[in-house]
Design the sequence.
């Protein structure tokens, strides 16, 4: 049949169709009232989506008996040409699959699992990306330094001067792009791209993927589900047509997860035991919660203190070396200088290692936000154990004040005796 032929649009109940003012298909009484379509017009209206299973294109010159025979041979007609109203409702309810992607702004089109996977990959790869940018920044700084030293040390003519200015401009623009990208990464990491949010994203991803393997647990009728089969997918248009042609829907055995019943008839899940470092011990959860809260609340300040300590050690090492250069030391004095430098270097090494450990523990973490969470957890644990953290602080302050008063009284007595 040529593509340039003219066609009617019909359904499998034998109804002809025309278009209304809104360009929608409307059933008509007979062939004389139906709209005539070209192949492209008819194809665009009925050969996509769920309409393709409900409508068909009929050439103008084709007879009814030939049309029916062709439909039977092509497998597009049902055994019974009549489509019941319930079947029509079923076709209307079949939803077309939506193409989902990560970058869509339409929430119904977002692939949530892929979105969360993309987020975790992004955050976990930021550290390497930042290091690459930092290396590029160092390279461009060295190039700019070479240009400036060339201008300072070498004779240049007017043409070379113009070329040097252009080279310097390009390098400075590249440097600005790298610094802006580093700044964007810092904003993202400090406000959103934290390890805590990655952990939440992974947990959400795990829950979303769990929807694909979830199973229904009978409330009362266990025996009803013992030998049944469960459909492995939702009913789609292809399933409806297979049922009409006598095909069975693919099924799988319904498996009830093992449960245990006690004397009262209550059911409990059979769980597998795995030994953890906390099993068989008397765990001090109050101290653990307090230590967590104290660490994340003070980690930032402690890092600053360590950085200041390292700078002070470097200054003392430099001063010691300068004194050794300006002084003629004998053997004893030289050994003392060597011993002091060794002590300072070992102390600096110890503090640098501690600082690196803190960086590893706090990198990509919003310590202030985590400290708020840990402090709330600590308050809850204290409430469960009947311990008040504020009372402990008050008692400590009271004990300190009492101790100061006692010392003051002792000093007064000593003054009177004296």
Sequence:
């Amino acid at each position: 049949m040529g593509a340039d032929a003219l066609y009617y649009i019909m359904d499998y109940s034998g109804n002809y169709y025309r278009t209304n003012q809104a360009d929608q298909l409307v059933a008509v009484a007979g062939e004389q009232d139906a709209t005539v379509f070209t192949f492209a017009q008819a194809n665009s209206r009925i050969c996509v989506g769920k309409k393709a299973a409900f409508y068909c294109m009929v050439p103008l010159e084709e007879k009814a008996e030939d049309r029916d025979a062709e439909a039977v041979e092509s497998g597009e007609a049902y055994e019974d040409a009549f489509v019941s109203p319930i079947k029509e409702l079923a076709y209307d309810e079949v939803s077309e699959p939506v193409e989902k992607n990560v970058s869509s702004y339409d929430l119904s089109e977002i692939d949530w699992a892929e979105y969360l996977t993309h987020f975790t990959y992004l955050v976990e790869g930021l550290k390497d990306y930042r290091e690459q940018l930092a290396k590029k920044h160092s390279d461009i700084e060295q190039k700019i330094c070479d240009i400036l030293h060339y201008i300072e040390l070498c004779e240049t003519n007017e043409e070379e001067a113009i070329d040097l200015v252009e080279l310097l401009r390009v390098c400075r623009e590249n440097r600005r792009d790298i610094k802006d990208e580093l700044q964007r990464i810092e904003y993202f990491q400090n406000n959103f791209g934290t390890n805590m949010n990655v952990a939440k994203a992974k947990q959400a991803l795990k829950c979303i993927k769990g929807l694909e393997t979830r199973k229904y647990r009978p409330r009362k009728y266990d025996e009803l589900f013992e030998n049944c089969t469960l459909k492995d997918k939702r009913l789609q248009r292809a399933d409806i047509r297979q049922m009409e042609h006598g095909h069975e829907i693919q099924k799988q055995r319904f498996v009830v997860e093992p449960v245990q019943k006690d004397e009262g008839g209550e059911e409990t899940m059979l769980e597998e035991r795995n030994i953890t470092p906390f099993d068989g011990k008397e765990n001090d959860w109050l101290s653990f919660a307090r230590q967590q809260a104290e660490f994340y609340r003070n980690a930032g300040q402690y890092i600053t203190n360590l950085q200041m300590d390292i700078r002070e050690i470097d200054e003392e090492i430099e001063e010691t070396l300068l004194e050794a250069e300006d002084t003629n030391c004998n053997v004893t004095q030289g050994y003392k200088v060597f011993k002091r430098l060794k002590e300072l270097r070992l102390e600096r090494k110890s503090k640098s290692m501690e600082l690196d450990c803190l960086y590893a523990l706090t990198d990509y973490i919003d310590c202030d936000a985590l400290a708020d969470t840990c402090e709330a957890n600590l308050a809850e644990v204290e409430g469960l154990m009947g311990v008040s953290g504020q009372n402990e602080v008050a008692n400590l302050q009271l004990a300190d004040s009492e101790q100061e008063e006692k010392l003051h009284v002792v000093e007064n007595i000593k003054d009177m005796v004296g």
